[in-house]
Structure formats: structure tokens, C-alpha cells
Design goal:
The longest helix is centred in the middle third of the chain and has 34 residues, at about 75-110. Helices cover about 50% and strands about 5% of the residues. It has 5 helices and 4 strands, in the order E-E-H-H-H-E-E-H-H. The strands form 2 sheets. A two-stranded antiparallel sheet has the order 1-2. Strands 3-4 form a two-stranded antiparallel sheet. The relative contact order is 0.11. The protein is elongated, with a radius of gyration of 29 Å. It has helices at about 45-55, 65-70, 75-110, 130-155, 175-185, and strands spanning about 1-5, 10, 115, 120-125. The chain is mostly helical.
Length: about 180
């Protein structure tokens, strides 16, 4: 029996590398021992995929949290479907937010709010255009909340249903496919 020069562990005869630290034993070529490859994530299909991943797929409809199922379950076709729907949902809701701020700024610039004198106080009086933009923006925001709930319920139930209205928008699907392909290499 020999001992490792690096860590002092006992090494059996005929062994080329120390089992404890990987250092070459006398007479062995000076190469590092190759670490064992990490086991690949199993690829599930069909109902097994749905059952295993529906507990995480619902995060796809909560904005930036869609990165969790995208990165954690990158081989799941079920999560991929809901992440694709979630990316579309996120992009459309982001466009709504940007347009809301643009229209609010335009309404405020064209029809500025005024300060009116009430009983012993001044109060802020928004213009009719600002009120209209706020009401329309709020109704659309409520619609996005409803769509998010529909997507979450579909994911939790294990269903692959498109979101109403925005589910047919496929502009970002090639981008999501490229991201998934890069993650799975």
C-alpha cells in the first residue's frame, strides 16, 4: 500500500489516482482524474410531464417569474408551452403599460389639470381626457388580471389552452424557441 503525496490518504496498489483528491500516484501520468458527468435531467413526455411540472408552470403568467419554469424545467414541453404563452402575455401587458403612460402624458399636456378653490381649500381637478384615459387603462388592466388568472388556472389544471384574445399572437414564439434550444444544448 502506498500513500498520496498530496493528501496522505492510503492508496491501493495498481491505482493511478488518489481516490480522495485525484492527484496522480507515483508512476501514473500527470493527468487530472475526470469528474463523473452530472446525470442529465430526465425528459418526461405526455401526462407524466404535465403531472410533474404543473406545480411550477403557473409562474409563467406572473411577469418576470416566467424565468423560473424556463430555467428550472427547460426540458419540459408543458412548461415550454406555458412559458411561450407567458412571454406573449408579458409583452402585450408591457405594451399596454407603455401606451397608458404615453396617452396619459398627451392628455395631461393637451388638457392640463387645474386647481380649483373649494370651501376653504384648493383641490386638484383632473381634465376629462385624463379621467377617460384612466378609466380605459384601468378596464384593460383588469382584463390582464383576468387573463393571468385564466393562464394560471389552465397551468394548474394541466391544460394547454391558449389565452383568450392574446393567445393567438405568435410573434415572440421563434424567440422563445431559440432561447429553449440554447438552454438545452
Amino acid at each position: 500500500m502506498a500513500f498520496c503525496k498530496n493528501c496522505g490518504a492510503q492508496v491501493e496498489d495498481g491505482i493511478k489516482f488518489c481516490a480522495a483528491c485525484g492527484t496522480p500516484v507515483d508512476g501514473a501520468p500527470a493527468q487530472q482524474a475526470q469528474p463523473a458527468a452530472a446525470p442529465a435531467q430526465p425528459v418526461l413526455t405526455g401526462d407524466a410531464d404535465v403531472q410533474a411540472n404543473k406545480s411550477i408552470a403557473w409562474l409563467s403568467y406572473l411577469g418576470i417569474f416566467l424565468l423560473i419554469p424556463m430555467l428550472a424545467k427547460k426540458t419540459s414541453a408543458f412548461c415550454r408551452y406555458h412559458v411561450t404563452q407567458g412571454v406573449t402575455f408579458f409583452a402585450v401587458s408591457l405594451c399596454h403599460t407603455i401606451l397608458y403612460f404615453i396617452f396619459s402624458a398627451i392628455a395631461r399636456a393637451i388638457f392640463p389639470p387645474s386647481l380649483k378653490y373649494g370651501f376653504l381649500t384648493y383641490y386638484y381637478s383632473p381634465s376629462w381626457a385624463m379621467v377617460l384615459v384612466t378609466i380605459i387603462g384601468s378596464i384593460i388592466s383588469i382584463g390582464f388580471c383576468v387573463l393571468a388568472v385564466i393562464g394560471i388556472v389552465n397551468a394548474v389544471k394541466g391544460e394547454e389552452k391558449e389565452l383568450p384574445i392574446i393567445g393567438k399572437i405568435k410573434i415572440l414564439n421563434p424567440l422563445v424557441d431559440k432561447i429553449y434550444d440554447a438552454l438545452n444544448k
